[in-house]
Amino acid sequence: MEEELNIKSFDFPSLPGAAKAINDCADQAEVPMQCVSVPCNLHHAKTLVIVNHQDCGAYGGSKKFNGDEAAEVIFHAQELKKARGKVLSLYPNLEIILIYAKLADAGENIEFLTIS
To answer: Are 24 and 36 in contact (CB under 8 A)?
Structure first.
């Protein structure tokens, strides 16, 4: 967070399948939405970063895309945007940064793609 996005102060709740966890919530009382509401309501967060990553087991991994990396990126971009919409419906003034973490160099490194 500090190196890639130059964000020095942040809460760091982590949920498997980040966007999926948010998208699958039926209401605000569920844990994923509490992970959003606590930083927003108690810590007055101004920015939320949602990160999905390549080969995410919560979504069935890369094998679900039969080796089509472009299709995997598009899918995760759609999921991230859907999660952003859900969070913005509750916190319309929140800045939300969407990131897709792509494995690079045979999985030795991570390339962070910002989704607009």
So the answer is: no
Q: What is the dihedral sign for C-alpha 28, 30, 36, 40?
A: positive
User: Range of 28's domain?
Assistant: 14-115
pLDDT number for residue 26: 87
3-state SS, the chain, equals CHHHHCCCCCCCCCCCCHHHHHHCCCCCCCHHHHHHHHHHHHCCCCEEEEEEECCCHHHCCHHHHCCCHHHHHHHHHHHHHHHHHHHHHHCCCCEEEEEEEEEECCCCEEEEEEEC
* Residue range 28-63, pLDDT digits in tens: 888 888 888 988 899 899 999 999 999 999 999 999
- Say if 44 falls within a structural domain: yes
The total number of structural domains in the chain stands at 1
Region 67-90 average pLDDT: 96
